[in-house]
């Protein structure tokens, strides 16, 4: 998506960042996909019984009891969120920054989207006082705030919101009559799973929270689009689920049957899938920690990464050195670092941050190797940071930031 830029400047890019290189497909999942490749009937809108039962089992194991008639699957998170926003209606609130794909769904539906600052200790959830202020201001201006989207394990900041922050944000939202959509795509990618407490808003307010998850966060390849939603129980939620299904049907956002078979197998979490997810999370954790050290040494700022495959860096302290290189906003910073690192480095403007803020999201994926063979070696190595291709990528990153000191 684009908006008009200041005179003499090109358009400001707000669309989704470029795809990132992923780890090789788990052979077991490829085999399941292949064995289902001759199925021609297709999944029904919202997913077939096998997939929805697997989704329920996945969430039951995480303390979120679900029934198949409370679950919906779609061909990717974008159409799923589009359907949910369309079903719940009203204006949308979300934290700043937020995933790049959230805001476009609201805009496509013609819904105002308001970004709310996050607390100092984490991203993903709004500061409760800022949320209340925003809700009251929007209502005073004639708006109808109805939805809050948040993520406890957050992209882009890679933080995990402490339970008390989640509780305070949810209390404020529910107290103002907002329904909460909790994006839990990254909940299974914790860098220190035995030391980090992740609490779903649905555990606190089961009647007021719809949970969504893009399975490519931890279980399936990004090239196999499938995302799922868990609705609260009750007649009102059943009506909203039906509206969501109507929208997904109109969009043709159904899951291809071979992908549904592979997704259901991954959601059952056999030992091979669980082991792969844990190994991938540990690899990204090591590389993210090394990238975080390089950012801090340069004098830039970043919260310690706790989940996912990203790092959100604030280069505001380096503004004068960047200005000497013609970099004065996040769009120019994106172009500068993308060119310098040879990999996409999306600016904060894509995630709802102000254009003038010098923030970028760094991805760990490009640091794992340029080929599938190198990325597989990174995954299986007991010392991935010592591999030549990983060490070189981290050196290039460190040099690019060190030049700005």
3D architecture notes:
- 41% of the residues lie in helices and 13% in strands.
- The chain has 405 residues and is of the alpha/beta class.
- Residues 1-12 have low confidence and may be disordered.
- The protein is globular, with a radius of gyration of 21 Å.
- Strands 3-9-8-7-6-4-5 form a seven-stranded mixed sheet, sandwiched between helices. Strands 10-11-12 form a three-stranded antiparallel sheet. A two-stranded antiparallel ribbon has the order 1-2.
- The chain has helices at residues 27-35, 49-60, 77-88, 102-108, 128-140, 163-175, 201-204, 235-251, 257-267, 271-297, 319-324, 330-341, 372-380, 388-402; strands spanning 2-3, 12-13, 71-74, 91-96, 113-117, 145-150, 179-183, 209-214, 227-230, 301-302, 310-314, 359-363.
Question: What layout of secondary structure does this protein have?
Answer:
Blueprint: E1 2-3, E2 12-13, H1 27-35, H2 49-60, E3 71-74, H3 77-88, E4 91-96, H4 102-108, E5 113-117, H5 128-140, E6 145-150, H6 163-175, E7 179-183, H7 201-204, E8 209-214, E9 227-230, H8 235-251, H9 257-267, H10 271-297, E10 301-302, E11 310-314, H11 319-324, H12 330-341, E12 359-363, H13 372-380, H14 388-402
Parallel strand pairs: 4-5, 4-6, 6-7, 7-8
Antiparallel strand pairs: 1-2, 3-9, 8-9, 10-11, 11-12
Helix pairs in contact: 1-9, 2-9, 3-4, 3-8, 5-6, 10-14
């Amino acid at each position: 998506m684009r908006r008009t830029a200041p005179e003499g400047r090109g358009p400001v890019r707000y669309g989704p960042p470029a795809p990132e290189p992923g780890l090789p497909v788990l052979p077991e999942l490829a085999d399941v996909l292949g064995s289902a490749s001759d199925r021609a009937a297709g999944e029904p809108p919202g997913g077939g019984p096998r997939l929805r039962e697997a989704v329920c089992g996945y969430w039951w194991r995480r303390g979120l009891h679900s029934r198949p008639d409370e679950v919906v699957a779609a061909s990717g998170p974008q159409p799923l969120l589009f359907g949910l926003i369309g079903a719940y209606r009203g204006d949308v609130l979300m934290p700043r920054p937020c995933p790049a794909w959230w805001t476009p769904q609201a805009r496509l539906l013609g819904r105002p989207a308001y970004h709310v600052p996050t607390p100092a200790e984490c991203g993903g959830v709004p500061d409760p006082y800022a949320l209340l202020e925003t809700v009251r201001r929007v209502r005073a201006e004639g708006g109808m705030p109805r939805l809050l989207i948040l993520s406890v394990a957050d992209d882009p900041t890679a933080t995990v919101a402490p339970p008390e922050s989640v509780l305070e944000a949810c209390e404020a939202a529910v107290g103002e009559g907002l329904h909460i959509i909790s994006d839990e795509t990254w909940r299974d990618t914790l860098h220190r799973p035995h030391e980090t407490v992740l609490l779903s808003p649905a555990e606190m307010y089961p009647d007021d929270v719809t949970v969504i998850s893009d399975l490519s966060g931890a279980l399936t390849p990004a090239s196999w689009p499938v995302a799922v939603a868990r609705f609260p129980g009750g007649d009102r939620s059943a009506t909203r689920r039906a509206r969501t299904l109507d929208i997904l049907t109109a969009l043709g956002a159904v899951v291809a049957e071979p992908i549904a078979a592979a997704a259901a197998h991954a959601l059952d979490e056999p030992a091979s899938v669980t082991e792969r997810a844990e190994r991938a999370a540990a690899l990204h954790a090591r590389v993210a920690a090394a990238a975080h050290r390089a950012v801090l040494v340069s004098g830039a700022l970043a919260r310690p990464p706790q989940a996912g495959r990203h790092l959100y860096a604030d280069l505001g302290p380096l503004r004068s050195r960047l200005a000497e290189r013609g970099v004065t906003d996040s769009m120019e910073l994106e172009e500068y670092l993308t060119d310098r690192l040879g990999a996409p480095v999306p600016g904060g403007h894509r995630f709802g941050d102000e254009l003038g803020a010098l923030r970028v999201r760094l991805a760990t994926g490009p640091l794992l190797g340029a080929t599938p063979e190198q990325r597989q070696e990174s995954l299986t190595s007991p010392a991935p940071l010592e591999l030549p291709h990983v060490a070189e990528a981290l050196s290039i990153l460190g040099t690019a930031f060190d030049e700005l000191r």
